[in-house]
């Protein structure tokens, strides 16, 4: 297998792993269409949520490629240059979208997603430090954590708290 | 590749800290723009978590001592220090 073939198969893997995430993003955008609070900020919210899903796409595809690619260099490239920026951008755009929608950062699903995505990134980065024989255990932990986080974010597990004028008080909104 | 990655994360973290101390906080406490620190503060918070993960991993790859790793963490709290720490890593 030549270097070109290896590179191509790596990108093919990235694309195939990412397709499911992109599909989930589109479904999520359609699902929130009727729940947006103010028509004036609809475009902003849709744009931010779309950018967040692109970033999540990067995080998920980077994580999956970090475990499935065969060469250590490819795995490191996926963890360092896809999963890490994906993590940062997901939370930057996610925060902006939450602010626009008036969602409190104290909502349970946000805490769950933050913890799970942090764990997934830490395990992914740890797994590419060197070639390890037992790769499937960290893969299950990282991908499981990402699945929990994505599920919590999509289905708003635990309900959403909406910010009011007095930020000490929040209104519980069940999913 | 780990070294380049850590440097990129350290530079991004350092820039977010400078933006927080140099732009957002003067806007908040000088001009009374309360929202100034919200976005920059959040970005810096995310970058600090990412920096700690990168530091933890890089320290193991290069077998740093606890003192060197602690120095790396302290660098994340001081403006411009992450740049110096990343430069030392390349030196």
Describe the structure.
- The complex is a heterodimer of chains A (175) and B (91).
- With 175 residues, chain A is mainly alpha-helical.
- Chain A has a domain of 122 residues: Four Helix Bundle (Hemerythrin (Met), subunit A), CATH 1.20.120.
- Helices cover 73% and strands 5% of the residues of chain A.
- Chain A contains 5 helices and 2 strands; from the N terminus they run αααααββ.
- Chain A has a two-stranded antiparallel sheet.
- In chain A, α1 runs antiparallel to α2.
- Chain B is mostly helical.
- Chain B contains 4 helices and no strands.
- The longest helix of chain B has 30 residues.
- The two termini of chain B are 15 Å apart.
What topology emerges from the helices and strands here?
The complex is a heterodimer of chains A (175) and B (91).
Chain A: H1 3-32, H2 42-68, H3 72-101, H4 108-127, H5 136-155, E1 160-163, E2 170-173
Antiparallel strand pairs in A: 1-2
Helix pairs in contact in A: 1-2, 2-3, 2-4, 2-5, 3-4, 4-5
Chain B: H1 2-31, H2 36-61, H3 66-75, H4 81-90
- Beta fraction of the residues of chain B? under 5%
Number of H/I helices of chain B = 4
Number of strands of chain B: 0
Determine the mean pLDDT of chain B.
Answer: 87
General shape of chain B: elongated
Q: Report the portion of residues of chain A in β strands.
A: under 5%
Primary descriptors:
heterodimer, A: 175 residues, mainly alpha, Four Helix Bundle (Hemerythrin (Met), subunit A), 5 helices, elongated, disordered N terminus, B: 91 residues, 84% helix
What is the compact description of this entry?
The complex is a heterodimer of chains A (175) and B (91). Chain A is mostly helical and 175 residues long.
């Amino acid at each position: 297998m030549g270097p070109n073939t290896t590179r191509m198969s790596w990108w093919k893997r990235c694309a195939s792993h990412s397709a499911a995430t992109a599909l989930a993003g589109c479904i999520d955008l359609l699902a929130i269409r009727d729940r947006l609070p103010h028509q004036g900020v609809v475009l902003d919210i849709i744009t931010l949520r779309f950018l967040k899903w692109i970033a999540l796409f990067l995080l998920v595809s980077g994580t999956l490629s970090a475990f499935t690619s065969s060469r250590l260099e490819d795995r490191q490239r996926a963890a360092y240059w896809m999963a890490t920026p994906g993590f940062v951008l997901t939370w930057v755009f996610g925060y902006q979208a939450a602010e626009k929608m008036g969602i409190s950062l104290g909502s349970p699903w946000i805490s769950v997603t933050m913890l799970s995505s942090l764990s997934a990134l830490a395990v992914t980065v740890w797994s590419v430090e060197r070639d390890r024989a037992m790769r499937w255990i960290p893969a299950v932990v990282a991908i499981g954590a990402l699945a929990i986080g994505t599920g919590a974010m999509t289905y708003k597990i635990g309900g959403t708290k909406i910010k009011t004028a007095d930020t000490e008080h929040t209104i519980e909104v069940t999913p | 590749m780990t070294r380049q990655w850590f440097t990129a994360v350290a530079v991004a973290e350092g820039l977010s800290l400078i933006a927080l101390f140099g732009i957002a906080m003067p806007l908040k406490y000088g001009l009374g723009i309360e929202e100034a620190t919200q976005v920059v503060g959040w970005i810096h918070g995310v970058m600090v978590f990412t920096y700690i993960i990168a530091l933890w991993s890089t320290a193991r790859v290069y077998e740093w001592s606890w003192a060197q790793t602690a120095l790396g963490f302290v660098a994340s709290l001081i403006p411009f220090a992450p740049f110096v720490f990343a430069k030392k890593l390349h030196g």
